[in-house]
Amino acid sequence: MNAPVPFAIKICGLSTPETLEAALGAGADMIGLNFHPKSPRFVTLERARELAAMARGRTAIVALIVDWDGRRAAELVEALKPDWLQLHGSETPDETAALRRVAGRPVMKALGIAGAEDLGAVAAYRGAADRILLDAKPPKDAAFPGGHGRPFDWSLLAGLDPAQPFMLSGGLDPANVAQAIGLTRPAGVDVSSGVESAPGVKDPARIAEFIAAARKAAAAVQEGSQA
Ligand SMILES: O=C(O)c1ccccc1N[C@@H]1O[C@H](COP(=O)(O)O)[C@@H](O)[C@H]1O
């Protein structure tokens, strides 16, 4: 039997040393650096290297990319040395497996969920991705494919194979994360907008509140499943 993976809390879209330090101090397990140019959380490689140097050895560093090819991803890995790649575009299972191979890093594949039919994609990525991240589907006219602060209907996840681990994202915040964890029992949670005071502006107090609430709810689920 595989060893259980510890519950992971990821704070995504960090772009300043101060807010990164807030996430590290509050105990984030993963931090996300966003390389999608249309995102309000976009960081240059230079800024990302500065932040990664602060974070290395204290948390897992995740580089978020959207529909990149393998050569570009491998160059980013060489320059930044992230622990993970987060693929948040329309990468197919084959492209996901190829990116993982070429870049030599574990990959977290984000899948957009709006209805029960979207859950079918999850099985297709088994073996291609190291983690599945279930996010709300972006609005149709959206300029970027994630980070819109919108939740999806969590009750849809009752239709998922209970043996399938996943991380949950999409519209999570300090006030709803405990309910989301209790209902869906994810292997981790990921947040961006819900810990901001404005798009792209992270709020240290909300980061700390989010991490404390998620940690407490995950511990309660764990205790409940052991009882
Ligand atoms: O945050 C962004 O700007 C972003 C841009 C492009 C792709 C993904 C992005 N963020 C990811 O989206 C989800 C949900 O974010 P939110 O909490 O609803 O704002 C999360 O996994 C982020 O990593």
Automatic annotation (TrEMBL):
Enzyme class, spelled out: isomerase
Keyword line: Amino-acid biosynthesis, Aromatic amino acid biosynthesis, Isomerase, Tryptophan biosynthesis
Taxonomy, superkingdom: Bacteria
EC numbers on record: 5.3.1.24
N-(5'phosphoribosyl) anthranilate isomerase (PRAI) domain span: 9-212
GO function terms (MF aspect): phosphoribosylanthranilate isomerase activity
Reaction(s) this enzyme catalyzes, per UniProt: N-(5-phospho-beta-D-ribosyl)anthranilate = 1-(2-carboxyphenylamino)-1-deoxy-D-ribulose 5-phosphate
Similarity-based family: Belongs to the TrpF family.
PANTHER family on file: N-(5'-PHOSPHORIBOSYL)ANTHRANILATE ISOMERASE
Protein name: N-(5'-phosphoribosyl)anthranilate isomerase
Organism (species): Bosea minatitlanensis
Encoding gene (name): trpF
